[in-house]
Amino acid sequence: MNYLDKLIPLFEDQRNEEQAAPMKKYMKNHFSFLGIKTPARVQLMKEFYIDTAILKRPFQRDLVLTLWGKQEREYQYAALDYIGRSLKKLEKDDLFLLEKLITAKSWWDTVDALAQNPVAKLAASYPEVIPETIDSFVIDENIWLQRTAILFQLKYKQDTDEALLYHYIKHNAASTEFFIQKAIGWALREYSKTNPDSVRDFIKESDLAKLSIREGSKYLK
Q1: Which InterPro entries does this UniProt record tie to the protein (predicted)?
Q2: Helix 38-52 × helix 73-84 angle, to 10°
Q3: pLDDT tens digit sequence for 141-197
Q4: Same domain for 70 and 6
Q5: pTM of the model
Q6: Are residues 65 and 137 in the same domain?
Q7: 129 neighbors 165 (Cβ within 8 angstroms)
Q8: Residue 118 lies in a domain
Q9: What distance in Å separates the CA atoms of residue 192 and residue 188, rounded to the nearest whole number?
Q10: What angle do CA 152, 70, 6 make, to 5 degrees?
Q11: What is the domain range of residue 161?
């Protein structure tokens, strides 16, 4: 079955140029949009899943890559939706696929979703990928790989590898890049819900950007 032949007409039929313009503007004009708002897109994906029964079949990596290559941003969101519903099917080597997605058409909307969900799932299921691959993300010149390394433990709570998190943050603490400073603050803020004393001490002892400190301290009293 050609899954694209099923999905593309669903999306194209809902093209709305009037809605597309503000969506494009919100994303700083980095991407074109069909103009399909989230609730409608979610419903279209449900129709697609029912019509194709794709979720009952092996993970379709080629479909993900094809969707990622399409111009309009909704197709990348469709790929993310499909990946999110296929987390149990992901294999260790799929981290290389995810790395391709992180470094293509990169912006916070897709990168953060990839970091918190499939990358987080693979790192939890196959901890060896952390020293094998994710460690290299944090020293890569690509800021989106750096951001992924900092954020992949965001939902780990008590399972957070604190030493690893702090190591990654320290490595990027001097960054002047907004998306890295913001990621550091976000990661610390989330972990402070689990271990506030540790985060408080870490912020006090570390030379962090003001933005990172402000974001990371929001829940600390």
Answers
A1: ARM-type_fold, DNA_alkylation
A2: 60
A3: 999 999 999 999 999 999 999 999 999 999 999 999 999 999 999 999 999 999 999
A4: yes
A5: 0.96
A6: no
A7: no
A8: no
A9: 6
A10: 100
A11: 127-221
